[in-house]
Amino acid sequence: MITQLANTDQQASDAVRTRLPALFVSHGAPLFALAPGDTGPALSRLGAELRSHQPLRGVVVLSPHWMSQGLRVMTGGQPATWHDFGGFPRPLYALQYPAPGDPALADEVLQLLQAAGLPAQADAQRPYDHGAWVPLMHLFPQADVPVVQLSLPATAGPAEVLALGQALAPLRDQGVLLLGSGSMTHNLSEFFGGEREPAPYVGAFSRWVEAALERGDLPALLDYRRQAPHAQRAHPTEDHFLPLFFALGAGGAAASRPHYVSREVMHSMLAMDALTLEEPQHA
Q1: Which of 96, 126, 198, 228 satisfies CB 3.0 to 4.6 Å to 265 for a cystine?
Q2: How far apart are CA 143 and CA 136, in angstroms?
Q3: DSSP state of 81
């Protein structure tokens, strides 16, 4: 009986450990693929750590570079690598990320969304945009973990994107990493300004977000447009900030707490914050 109880306790402990965190990454500019700074190696370490605990079944990623009318899910078995940008050095266009898709996982995503009242359409032709493949190159450089992309509905706001993450949260118990790929700050009108030191507003906005995440202040985060300092400058449009709410919903919303992987700032105005979100475990 003692052995049986011990085994039961161990199984329960293993079940807790197999729940993957949700993840938010800032994918920065496409050059992040070739110039990883400190954030790229930090993501590689995180990817290795995630794989050391259990096999990864797949990744579901939401990127602002796939905006659509309505909700769509990538269902192809071998999506192409799309170089959806212009004016960058030629070596960037030679990069490929040949990770397989996963039609079976995509079908589960479609079913979970449907069950949550969020019906989506299948898209078998969608390639990987750079919001997906650039950070994944650092996270899983072997390109051997299946990937499914989810579109960002063009009319969605923070609450709607939060609901997407909440709908797919059960996949965390099945070896699936839920990834929101965006940018903690993203004012591209300042990208070519030539400055190298982090702009003060970048830190003010990013640390406000971090403090709100730490205290679990979901109402403030949902209302960040009014409450966060310099929100309009940090995000003239909010498409690159919305993936944070996907990760937040997937990670347990107000119950989740952040673990920061990176707080680097590139090109003075791109906060490259990357963080995991998960519910605290209780003994």
Answers
A1: 198
A2: 8
A3: B
Question: What distance in Å separates the CA atoms of residue 112 and residue 164, rounded to the nearest whole number?
Answer: 10
User: CA 231, CA 62: separation in Å to the nearest integer?
Assistant: 22
pLDDT tens readout for residues 156-168:
999 999 999 999 9
- Measured over all CA atoms, what is the biggest interatomic distance in the chain, rounded to whole angstroms? 69
Q: E strands along the chain, which residues?
A: 22-26, 58-68, 72-74, 121-123, 147-153, 176-182, 257-262, 265-266, 270-271, 274-278
Spell out the long-range contacts of 207-210 with Cβ–Cβ below 8 A and sequence spacing 24 or more: 209/184, 209/244, 209/273, 210/258, 210/260, 210/273
Distance (Å) of CA 232 to CA 9, 69, 194, 217? 50, 24, 21, 20
Task: Determine if the pTM surpasses 0.90.
Answer: yes
Helix/strand/coil percentages in the chain, nearest 5 = 45, 20, 40
**pLDDT tens column, 52-68:** 988 999 999 999 999 99
Side chain identity at 205, as an amino acid letter? F
All structural domains of the chain: 2-278 (3.40.830.10)
pLDDT on residue 192: 67
Q: In 10 A of CB 226, how many CB atoms?
A: 8
Q: Within 10 Å of residue 51's Cβ, how many Cβ atoms? A: 16
Q: Are 63 and 239 in contact (CB under 8 A)?
A: no
Distance CA 120, CA 75 (A): 12
- Distance separating alpha carbons of residues 93 and 150, to the nearest angstrom: 23
